Amino acid sequence: MKCPKCQFENPEARKFCRECGIKLLIICPKCHCENIPGDKFCGECGHNLTIPSKPILKELSFDEKLAKIQKYLPGGLTEKILSQRDRIEGERKQVTVMFCDMEGYTGLTEKLGPEEVYSLMDQVYEILIQKVHDYEGIVNELTGDGIMALFGAPIALEDAPQRAIRSALAIHREINRLSEQLKTEKRIPSVKMRIGIHTGPVVVGTLGNDLRVEFKAVGDTVNLASRMESLAEPGTTYVTEDTFRLTEGFFRFEALGERRIKGKEEPVKVYQVIAPSTRRTRFDVSAERGLTPFVGRERELELLLDGFQRAKSGKGQAFSIVSEAGCGKSRLLYEFRKAIVNENITFLEGKCLSYGRGVAYHPVIDILKSNFDIHDGEGDQEIREKVKKGLSLIGVDDASTLPYLLELLSVKDSGIDQISMSPEAKKDRINESIKRLVLRGSDIRPLIMAFEDLHWMDKSSEDVVKNHLESIPGSRVLLIFTYRPEFVHTWGAKSYHNQLTLHRLSNRESLEMVTHILGKREIERTLEELILEKTEGVPFFIEEFIKSLKDLKIIEQKENVFQLTKDIHEVSIPSTIQDVIMARVDSLPDGAKEVLQTGSVIEREFSYPLINRIMGLPEKELLSCLYILKDSELLYERGIYPQSSYVFKHALTREVVYDSILAKRKKKVHEQIGSAIEELYKDGLSEHYEVLAEHYFLSENYLKSAEYSRLAGKKVEKTASFSDAIPHAKKRVQCLERLPQIVDVQKQVIDARVSLGLYLAQMIYNADAKAAIDPIIDLAKKHNDKRRLCQIYTILGVYYCFVEDNYIEAFKALEKGLKISEEINDFITSVLASCGRQWRESQK
After folding, report:
1. How far apart are alpha carbons 705 and 38 in whole angstroms?
2. Given CA atoms 64, 69, 70, 76 in this order, what sign does their dihedral have?
3. 556 partner at 20 to 30 Å CA-CA among 286, 312, 362, 840?
4. What is the distance between the alpha carbons of residues 463 and 214, in angstroms, rounded to a whole number?
């Protein structure tokens, strides 16, 4: 029975399509009643149904169609959106936007009737929605002849640009299949899609009371994706340079040069997606470009090699390589494979992919293809022959194994449908077939089977792994798993299982990597410190951060030395790193995520009493959230509860989380933090002047920030730390000048600028001191602020004397200052008199 949706040939008695899963129905041609496959006569009117006819889809009501679309939403997303709709304020995210538009839609509406157009678009939309959600994207908008889709919002994805392009390729493939079907059946002209993709920042706004999510783009992110779609030729996908850079190596592209885009001053580089490459993981791409030196993992490599020797001798072993993202799991496996390249072994490798979680047995199928040397594009008969030959070489019986392996490899007429047993029993037979293949293979020569990235593994594959673990003692099998700490398993207690935890690199090891990447040149100390601070020993972060610095021309080589060319505050976090971090953060329960975001606003380290005061949650609930964050290794705990404090494991994590919060919410939380500190530490507030000044500044409470900046300056002034007082004085000036300039504020501005000038003068920054007081000289005269005028003239006198060597102007200024100081009986009199005498002596 051919499926009307995907054209897959199903066995006659099937009720659901084995390829796409839709229900197969036989509609009686006489009374239009539904009948299930296998019925010989209509259950309603008795009409003979054995006359060949095509199963057709039941016409769905609007509500059924709505339910049909919603079932394609990524798992848990509907519930997540509905549970947060009343309280989500919005987040700033790095998102990949995709526009799809059907070519020639207007012409089709003129040639076809309304019902045919509706039927066609229903099929097109189903393909678009399905292929977007296959890669965990979300359809944000349905247009008359296409869609707008987002990858990485509202849930961040660490490989969103890749997923968007894979989704686009799948859409083109399915639309081409539909087009050929329509040409044959209804003589409808060719149907093609134009697709445009761009990656950039987007604000995920407040959610409404239904499933519609309102997205508001920051800058021109959405506009550029739309422009790419408009430029694309029918049947193609165009991407911007931003998306190209993030996916280079995973796909083949054709550079189309620069194009003028409406609303953009500079031309935009455009690339056409040609096809996926053979490289599927980040490590595959890195290996192709050239790897950095293998550092800091020598001990772990030796342990793997020792385990291999034990497995060779018939003592089966299993190793788990565990670390957070980017710490070198795949690299260690690669170096291990290099080290045993001359051994007579079978090495099988299966990779779990972030977008393959919904595909049963995904890494196991990789293992089978590797074992039988099966390549993409090979036909069913060729695959069948390869599997039969492979089984005969190791002496495995065809009847007990072949159908199950062919079924996993999607070979038609695998024979599994002729075997009468329950689905659970068939699953057991599949597991036994794979185990038989591995154990018999290891009898011939030692066998290593590696499963990478188990944190993305599907449930069926996990059952296969557990089955293998139970069977390897006494065999010549070495199992190797790689995964992140969040993956939970039950095999840790096995005596033949070993866990290798990869820690971050030391500063020495990190600098060894940095030196290699920059071509063994000398590195400026400031640049070294910046890289170490931002990357904290994570190899992937080191590579991506340096690549970003080079691409953005933030570093350059001068006389064999690499150095920064811009202020370090202008250095942004690469998109690749942001995506990895935000994918972890978005996987947290909502309460834990909110605590993490609030903590990021406080600082990299925050105390329990402070987070408790700000969050206002029941103690048990807050402790639960903090436990989740510790267990996820996003935070470390210091000290003993309830006086404990919490530290972000990575400075970059704190920065990425902080940057994801919208400005309006950050402003509110900074104000809450200031108030909480004032309440908690009112008896020792002087220790917190600097922190309070910063939080109130970021909350735009400039009056309070100015006052705490003044107090912070006075505190360090007592120890003559004038260089430390200067930043506080500058912040005070900045705050006061942002306020409405009423009389009281003007007087404070005079005071603030003179204080700044005096601090600068003490450090002999005389030109800067004059620049600080110049804007308020007339204002001080207007308000007749004699004390500050006296100090102003002193600063001017010193400036003219030591900067311009203009002794006449210096004398005039000092005389004015001396006169005023005598009028008000100020201590400055003696200082000015002394200066005047010294100046006169110098002129004799």
Report:
1. 79
2. positive
3. 286
4. 40
CATH code for position 195: 3.30.70.1230
**Cα distances (angstroms) measured from residue 53 to each of 7, 14, 617, 627:** 14, 15, 64, 61
CA distance 281 to 301: 21
pLDDT at 827 over 80: no
Are residues 652 and 774 located together in one domain of the fold? no
- Quote helix, strand, coil % in the chain, to nearest 5: 55, 15, 30
Amino acid type, 512: E
In a domain, 676, yes or no: yes
User: How far apart are the C-alpha atoms of 737 and 772, rounded to whole Å?
Assistant: 13
Q: At what angle do helices 575-586 and 590-602 cross, to 10 degrees?
A: 130
pLDDT value at position 77? 52
Alpha helices in 416-458 (DSSP H): 423-444
Closest residue by Cα to residue 13 from 42, 29, 46, 35: 35
CATH number at residue 485: 3.40.50.300
- Dihedral pair phi/psi, residue 567, rounded to 5°: -65, 140
Q: Considering the entire predicted model, what is its pTM?
A: 0.71
Mind listing the pLDDT tens digit for each residue in 483-521?
998 888 877 778 899 999 999 999 999 998 888 888 877
CATH number for the domain harbouring residue 787: 1.25.40
User: Which of 245, 279, 313 is the last residue before a domain boundary?
Assistant: 279
64 burial type by CB count under 10 A (0-12 exposed, 13-18 middle, 19+ buried): exposed
Residues 318 and 398 in one domain: yes
| pLDDT tens, position by position, 105-164 | 777 777 777 777 778 888 899 899 989 988 989 888 887 688 889 998 878 888 899 999
Residue that finishes a domain, picked among 526, 550, 572? 572
Helix (H) or strand (E) holding 137: none
647 with 790, same domain: the answer is no
CA 327 to chain centre: 16
Residue 729 belongs to some domain of the structure: no
Note whether 268 and 375 are same-domain residues: no
Check whether 208 has a pLDDT greater than 50: no
Structure tokens at 95: 């998102």
β-strands 91-102, 251-259 pairing: unpaired
Query: Would you say residue 826 has pLDDT above 60?
Result: yes
Residue the block writes with tokens 């550092």: 295
Please list the residues that pair with 142 across neighbouring strands. 147
Say which residues have a Cβ less than 8 Å from residue 185's Cβ, sequence separation at least 6.
Answer: none
- Is there a single domain that holds both residue 73 and residue 94? yes
Domain-located, residue 378: yes
For 162-212, strand residue ranges (E) read: 193-207
Q: Are residues 113 and 232 in the same domain?
A: yes
Tally the residues of the chain: 844
Per-residue tokens: 368: 């089978």
**CA angle 766–770–773, rounded 5-degree value:** 140
- Residue 733 falls inside a structural domain: no
End-to-end CA distance of the chain: give it in Å, rounded: 115
Q: Nearest 5 degrees, angle CA 115-CA 117-CA 120?
A: 110
Residue 558 C-alpha from the chain's centroid: 34
Q: How far is CA 716 from CA 674, 725, 752, in A?
A: 21, 6, 15
Same domain, 41 and 20: yes
Average pLDDT, the chain: 83
What whole-number distance in Å separates Cα of residue 626 and Cα of residue 562?
A: 41
Residue 394 and residue 317 share a domain: yes
Taking Cα atoms as reference points, which of 750, 760, 759, 661 lies closest to residue 716?
759
Q: Contact at 8 Å (CB) between 325 and 426?
A: no
Q: What is the dihedral of CA 530, 531, 532, 537, to 10 degrees?
A: 160
Q: Is the peptide bond before 403 cis (omega within 30 degrees of 0)?
A: no
* DSSP letters spanning 286-324: HHHH-PPP--S-HHHHHHHHHHHHHHHTT--EEEEEE-S
Neighbour count for residue 89 (Cβ, 10 Å): 14
* Cross-sheet strand order for the sheet of 555-558: 522-523, 561-564, 555-558
What range defines the domain where residue 798 resides?
740-844
